[in-house]
Each structure stands twice: as structure tokens, then as C-alpha cells.
Amino acid sequence: MSTERVTFLNEKESRTWGNLWSLHVALPAKLDARLKREAGIGHFDFMALREISVSQQGAIRLSELATATDMSLSHLSRVITRLEKNGLVRRIPDAQDGRSTIAELTSEGKKVVETAEPEHTSEIRRIFFDNLDESELHAVDSAMAKIAKALHSDRNA
To answer: Which of 4, 15, 49, 138 is the most buried (most CB within 10 A)?
Structure first.
């Protein structure tokens, strides 16, 4: 255990942390429920499908997809297995690197993304962006970029 003295959160920090926690828990749950209702897939599934769809030729190395979606390789593997069983993606060996596997969208996977993305984007806009003015959006963007950078630097340490 660290011998450093802990500085507990003050009232404002505690409230901010509570709001972030609520956002962290409630937003993905709400988006997940809507995606399941509208498209029959969960939020992690959608994020993987969307990242594959915007990559070159609708295919991407699994290691790159894990980074793009902030999923661990083991979590992504479970997501890709589920998507593969549902006929939305296929795994193919990487011709450039025999150690790598590529995830490629099927035509059915493309249809799911095309169906789900407008509603998903609309829900994100309604819940998140429509509740921020331009200066708040700038502040949130700046703050989240700093936090994401710290998270990613911790991952690489």
C-alpha cells in the first residue's frame, strides 16, 4: 500500500466525479438498450461494426480494431465471435502478416450499420450534444481529450 497521504475529493470534485460515473454507466446502458431494440445488437457490437465499416474496404486488423474501439483483445474477440455467428462479419487471415487476423463486414453487417447508425447518432445527439452550448462542448471536448490521453498513456506504461 502507498505511504502517500490521500487527498480526498472536495464537494465539487465529488459531484463532478458522480456526474462522470453516471454518464459512464447510464449512457452506454441507454445506447445499448436502444440499439438492441432498433437493430438487434449491443453497443460494443455496433462500435466494432461501425469501425470496420469506416475502415478501408470494410476490413481491419483485429489489433487495430481493438485500439479504435478501446476494447481489450479478449473482449473484442468475444464481440467478433458473436458478430461472426450472426453473419455480420467474417474473420480472414491477413495476407500481409500471417500472425494477424482481419475482420471484414459481410453484406448483412453493412445493412445493420446502415440501419442502426442514423438512430444511434440521433440518440447521442439528443442525450449529449443537444444539451451543450458551444463553449460547454469545447470545454467537455478539451477535458475528455486530456483524460483520454492519461488513460491511454497508463495503458502503454
So the answer is: 49
